[in-house]
Specification:
Length: 132
Amino acid sequence: MSYKKTRGSLCKCQYKLHHQTVPTYRPLLLAFPENQAMKFSILFFILLLACMYPVLAQGSYENCCLKYVVGIKKSTKRKVEKYRLQETDGGCNIPAVIFTLRSSRIFCANPQLSWVQRLMGEVNARSNNKRM
């Protein structure tokens, strides 16, 4: 069999069948010359890096709340140690109050709700009493 290098994905091949030469077309495994194969692999690598860059960039944002809790039990309210405010800048889409419990668990609440504002006041009062 003789293979002829072409730019396409097929090559014209000839083989002998009972002393006759019959032309056929078979797929060519390496259709690109070496320099084009190198260009293709470099292009593929650059595209792979371009696709991975946004995924890596998303990891640099801090933890953001994506939804609020509706309500919590009184016993959970007593376990709140501190809170911080989440603003809608950077990667965070909603304003929220992030409460931290003694067990280092967190939950997010809507800062416009009255029970959230009362709980923030209670946490402030508790932390002021501890400082004195």
